Amino acid sequence: MKLGDVQLERLNALLGQVLPANGFYAGKLGDKVGPFSSLEEFTAAVPFTTKDELAADHERHPPYGTTLTFPLETYTRFHQTSGTRGTPMAWLDDAEGWAWVLKSWQWVWANAGAQSGDSAFFPFSFGPFIGFWSAFEAAAEMGIRAIPGGGISSENRLRMMSLHRPRFMACTPTYALHLALVGKGMSLPVDGMGLDALVVCGEPGGSIPEVRKRIESEYGARVVDHHGMTEVGPVTVSDPANPRVLRIFHSSYYAEVINPESHERVPPGEVGELVLTTLGRHGAPLIRYRTGDLVRPIAIDGEDPEAFGLEEGIIGRADDMVVVRGVNVYPSAIEAVVCSVEGIAEYQVEVDQRGALPEIRLMIEKCGESQVEEELEARLRSVFSMRIPVREVEPGTLPVHEVKAQRWKVIAK
To answer: pTM (2 decimals)?
Structure first.
């Protein structure tokens, strides 16, 4: 069966179970319930879902909104969005929905080369963030020895890794680099831990060549990128044949890439916004959900035409881009330049909107006594064709993040 036929079958099954039981979508879709005879008919008839809609629904109907398909007592899993763009939203899963999430993560692990009998280390504290709960449980379910590293210092995490020598580690790109720096300070280099691969997520760094190269150089191990969202689930993983491309789990998601303004589907090679429909999370579904993630779809040789990949991963957020003196500046572009310069331990970007035009500047913490400000300013000027000031701050001034690094600080008018 062709991928499009599989997606259409699962889409109609989703709509058949969700409607009219799901209050949010019953009110939103009305009589646009299918069954549909083609994916084109579905996209022509069904409107997008936005995060603003979900947030408003949660505010009107606290604490879980009206997006639940089944009775509340059937839900066993609680997670919460990061809240980086507003108030955190709670997201629930029933047993079947959670099993679907774990299946998607197991697809990620398999593409990373993990299998039963391997071991994986998880250097983070377990909070309401979904990503590492699902990664941990998916690994354990498929026979991987899952080693928790929460509630302890980075130094003790390194000692654990040195002792247990896991083959895999799951963390953010930022924390991977931080852990490498801590290891140097305690004469416990991370390239001696026996790691074969780091599965990185939570930030776009794993698909940025400069960031990936720096992590792989520090650890002597492969970097496997992955991305997902609390309200959507695990979506992508690095193509084993080409780490610059993220592959989508197309049998679990119907994916579209649209022009954010015209809403037309963009052709391969052009940048647009990723839109996802969750085909198996019936208890808490999302239909044509505008993720806000900017991506560049490309065809994958030898694959079904529907099975496109994402070149350079998640390029940025539609609401993160800043126009400075006529130049579009994305966080991932800044990250790539910073990581190309040796001697920077941490950085933060300030976007000052108080003047007539936005201004941008960087604060950095350095490793040792290296003089990197001028080199970084020169590289930023070369890439962006404008001067972006760089200022050194004292070590420990900038925050260290285990989960999602929030490096952009906006100073509003």
So the answer is: 0.84
